[in-house]
Batch of 4 targets.
Target 1
Amino acid sequence: MKNTLLLLAALSLTSASAVTTIDYATWDGTRQPADEALIAAYNKSQSDVVVKYNLVPWGVYWQKAAAMVAGGSTYDVMWMNLDNFPFYQSQGALAPITLDAKTSAALPATRTSPYRVNNQLYGVPLGPQPVTVYINRALFKERGVPIPTANWTYDQMLAAAKKLTFMKDGKQIYGINGADLQADLEYGMSFYFGAGGQGLIKKTGTTYAASLDPVFQKTAQQLLDLIYVHKVSPGPQAATQQGYQMFLAGQMGILVQGSWMVSTWSQNKDLDWAFAPFPSENGLKPRPVVSAHALVVPQGSKNKEAAAKFITWMNTSTQAQRLLAQRGLLPTLAESYKSQYLQALPGRNAQTVFTQLPNSVVINSSLRSLKGLPEVLTVLSQKMNLAWTGNAKLPDAISQAQTEMTNLLKQSK
């Protein structure tokens, strides 16, 4: 009997030791319920792998990511954005991911190509996460503002924002979240590309140069004027709430944000929200930005094979794709699960998201080999932020950014 108990204990220890734990890390709290549901489903389907969810605040997240470069302990699967990808990949901090032919063929090439270096894939993109326009239909109706149509223009958006800025029951209602529309960041850049912009860094041969051209300057001025000239938005320094919080509370008429915010709106059952088309400029088609976030495997992971298997499941399995689409989130194979997505958001004009998706832009997708990209973009953001917070004139901020970016780019390869 004693020998039998010892044998069973040994078998139990062997079984426990055979289970691989994968640490999954993300900074995006808006997806937490969906991510936890995905992980629970995956864990249930596996007998030898357990995935652990880690939600890490944005600032702390990149401190943790620094461990990838140092070669210390790290997570097994991590979110990565395209601006930071060149640095981590160039430092050897990411492991190449090998996918089978069927999976590779299923993934959209436009979203995987930015994460390929020397014919090796270092990141598998999560579903497309486009910048979108949301409207509070109740406020539109109350103020007699026409609901936006497919040919909505920037001037019409501005006119709407002016009518949607008013006092109600002692509370200030604003037309739009201009404080979030800094022209060099993804929300503001969506207006820039729609106005004909081609990118803020130009590559000629093997050299790079800043290109803060007249389109960028005009777009930046238009967006900045929403705060300081037209006063249809609170400024960054005056705002006591973020734009999305005001929209959620029914105190903002138009919100430019990401498609991933859908789950947030369910927190206010009285919010009558819907998607709206991105406004056009000069008769051009809207070209909103798509955030090209991807899942990567740090080189320091001790479970690379299991991590790659989990990434494949997250991005291509029917179960994962349906779960996301049914929650109003775009899965990686978004076009194949369009019907489930639209069914999850009845009466919200969600078709707009798919109408604009083919013409959307991945920022800096052609600059993935530029190692100094994060530093260059940081300089631009710092200078533009001075203008957005009212601490510098916009032309001065753009001029300084152009000079400092060019100096950094001369040192970059």
Target 2
Amino acid sequence: MNVWLLPLIAMAAVQAFVGLCLFAIPVIAPQAAPDLGVDPGLLGLYTAVVFTAAIPASLGAGGLIARWGAIRTCQACLLAAAGAALLSASALPIAFLLGALALGFAFGPETPASTQLLSRLTPPEKRPLVFSLRQTGNQFGGMAAGFAVPLLVLSVGWQASLMVVAGATAVLALALEPLARRHDGDDRAAPRPAGRGTLKRALDLVAGEPALRRLAMAVCAFSAMQLCLNGFLVSFAVTSLGWSLPLAGTALAVAQGAGLVGRVGWGLVATRWAPPRVILAGLGVAMSVAAALVAIASPGWPVPAFLAVCAAFGLSASGWNGLFVSEVARLAPPGRAGEATGGMLAIAYAGLVAGPALFSLLVAGGFGYSAGYLAAAAAALAGVAALVIPLPPAPTPDLSTAAEDTPCA
């Protein structure tokens, strides 16, 4: 058996369960919002808090991996995500906020840790496909949230549903222990404090490479679009289209299923037929069109037609992530894939913070979900521009002037 296969399955499962803890929140939003005393649209601010916390957590991922190892870092992320679900289940607004912070600290190091592990175990020629397969974990988590969580909510209520999600996530953390003993010794280096120096190194690594900078700008916009798709689709279908909660959950599951197909499919296309940057630009245009179609949807639309739009939305807005991670692993210096991924994700998470926050404010301000999806479409087109419009060259110092201005000894 290939040495990377079992770690790949494990890392995809980690992403699936951390994602499930996040996706469960928008699914339970229509039921939970009255108990919390807020508008369902305002629960989009939950994801803004999550990814605000994820920014420093992702930047510090390199230090955590060096100290604990990649898999033990993932175990810590799973336990933090389980704790976040339990806190949210309390129905106390302050506990909901603390849960969002805990989930952010789970999201930050999880992808850098898996990137570090898989980049070490996977041959370079297999990395686009392996990383695309690993990124399907997010879609499995989203589909589980779309199909299973609504049924749990109707059976046992939204609070008990979050408790079930928390328990399953904690069980996975314990199940990873044999893999941690086998692989983490190779990942650990001399311990380094996860402080300011570590955070700055991760950002400097991204800022110092033009290809990473361009990718970071696009990914920031695409991430905002992806969270607007995942975070508001269920509430939009319930409140604007008049759908039942299980049917609205099905729309999210369809989008996530299409994203799963896209992550693998676009990875195969990138290895055989087209450069990743070209594919990413095309996906940016496609997700903008899909978001605009969602924005104009009305209760009179046939259910299959809206589900088809959701599938196109997921194929594009949730299908680009594998290409992104494999490109970071390719461009990163040897042994620094996790650190580079952490720096890139910090920039991506800025989009994850701004996108849902702006969307929630538009909904709360009376502009509606349609305005939010149109704003997300405009942001995605800006990301396409970052990929296709050449950046101006970095200024070079005038050495002759500097020499004239320097006093002689």
Target 3
Amino acid sequence: MAADRMLQFVEREQHYPDKRSADDRARDFREIAERYAAPDADEQAARCSQCGVPYCSVHCPLHNHIPDWLRLTAEGRLREAYELSNATSTMPEICGRICPQDRLCEGNCVIEFSGHGAVTIGSVEKYITDTAWAEGWVEPLHPGKVTGQSVGIIGAGPAGLTAAEYLRVAGHEVHVYDRHDRAGGLLTYGIPGFKLEKDVVMRRVDRLAEGGIHFHLGFEVGGDATLDALRQKHDALLIATGVYKAREIKVPGNEAEGVIAALDYLVASNRKGFGDAVPAFDDGRLDAAGKHVVVIGGGDTAMDCVRTAVRQGAKSVKCLYRRDRENMPGSLREVSNAEEEGVDFVWLSAPESFTADKSVKQVAVAGMRLGAPDASGRRSPEVDPGRTFDLPADMVIKALGFDPEELPNLFGAPDLSVTRWGTLRVDHQTMMTSLPGVFAAGDIVRGASLVVWGIRDGRDVSDQMAKWLKAKAKSEKKAA
């Protein structure tokens, strides 16, 4: 019976795809683990307990039908598993690679709580869709019945690409504008290849272009055209730019040469991976080779930076984080990978100043301790008097998170309303901004930048835009 294939978590141990050795993977930017072979994926999927209330789905921002496609995988019905996985996510193989499963679906798996180890959901998801691409099951994008309406999307990251797909399927003409020369946003330029190889992203972009979505790359809104000019050109606009403004750290020496923003560093590295000429990398400013590197921050971006520095041949790589391991926001799985590759984590520490003549030479570090919980429930870091030390540093990378850019000024749109935090002000029912027909993806509203949320935002806001466009067409027809 098919049911006999499930509930195997007692007899079968948790097993992730084998990782390449730390020495091997530190020499290149290939993904660190291969995908499952079919029997392994089937067996791991069969460990699912098929919960009546699946916490994995509840804690998935996309609310993927995880137990259902795990069961289909265990039963050998892989094409159906792919179709079900694809029903709630436009990029399941990307989510399988980069979602922080240890904080989301796998971290809330019931059998994880029972001590048997979570189902390896992300690895199975990656396996399902990689197989679908290999077998030709990923169908071309089929545009819907032509509506005669045009939509402009500003930003070709996860939210913009997802919205573009849904709106094209609804029959609209879709134009995507992005300031970079390749689409994909953080998927292309922010996330290193060892977590997400770039051909995985490019084949998704190619599929959208082949489906009739128009990409305008190297396009600066506010430079090449104002927001108002785009409003005149399209029936509706979606702002899906993400949050890219680096948070600063206010300590002496912050302006020294060699103190750089995380995204500048990661973009340069990814561009070199594409074979681009990158002057700031080629002259050594954004290349960690032979340097003592100190990364400040404890999130996933910091993990990307430390592991990139290892691959570039840094002399040493240290990560300063003001809380301890248990209270860091980044993936503990990524911390483990980084430690295997030679990264040294300096917990409960924060920079006091950067010593430099012209270029940074040293970081003065203050020891920290955890005090009372803050509003989020996490214990607040505070200075631990008397514990200070210095670290050598030829490069300091600031990975402290991101804030929204000043979009009204950037886009030449002073009437575009923002909150006191700089995020776009929207009607949370319709996702429309203060400008009629101009919508915003949730990552610009919340100030968040997690890729999986961007995919959900693109899905949700495209639904609201489709409703508004339908009503607009009906109103114009009635007026005529």
Target 4
Amino acid sequence: MLQYNGAVGPILENAGEFNVNRGRALPYRFVRLMVLAASLGVVLQGTAAAIQWRPLARTARHDVAVDMDSLKLTPLGRVTVWLRFTPLGEPQRKLAAGEYGEKQYRLHLEYYEIDCSEQTDVLELIDIIGPDGKRLARMKGGGPLAAIFPGSALDLAAKQVCPSFEDETVSDDEVETPDSNDTEEASTQQVPEEVRARIAEALQKTQKSPGNQAAWRELGNAYYDGDQPQQAIEAYDRALALVPDDADILNDQGAMYRQSGDFTRALANFERALKIAPYNLESLYNVGYVNAFDLNRMDKAREAWRRYLELDRTSETALQVQGFIERYGK
């Protein structure tokens, strides 16, 4: 079994025993992952050396760190990584100890496989660590791949461990040094032209008809698609001032709050949307996800997920929700 004593990094005993879908061809990007594996420090065989925990994020209850020396490349082209979740204080530690059923809980480790090309993940293992680095329990995960939620700790980890291919064929001679006059326009240029056109058109509509709720919604959606959360939040605020009980806008604005790191306001939006539309599947999914992965309120998350499955059991999202319950259910 895997051993952990606080000085030696987590070792995956059966690293090659992953489920392989033999009916599916390996993704094209797998080959490119192999080419760049060495530059990432990813290995195909062997064990991890001394732990190199790198601070990653802070949630409402945990400091999250990533072990960059735990990276491996699986036969399916997924990158594996360990994350460490350390409670921020004694109240948070006791709460986690109750959730995991281990009174001596001090922290826990989570072992993920990340599909960099698809931006999905599967949680394979959870190790509960007690005093002196002793492993108290191991929980096995598995299940279907789930989408990595933007802005989550796992999303930040994926950005660190996944290679970027966009510029890999550009030679040094082709790299241009930006002119200082272009600095102000850099962020705007990153937004696709089609989205920038939508933003401009929606802005014109809101200026001509400030009382047009649909125009403010359209502007918020354009900023949303342009990955500009603060501008989207402000546009949605204007739309909600005109029609406060729009569950769809509340959900979209909640997603932008979450992307900007304001998990409490994101959850408030999703819960308000759910009160307005009790059978809204998007709201149920969002309430469960934020409670689970941002606020570590697994009881609330499971409640939302079970309600979701009462309404939908066949969609792709329902399969993800079922996977969450199997993974985190008690």
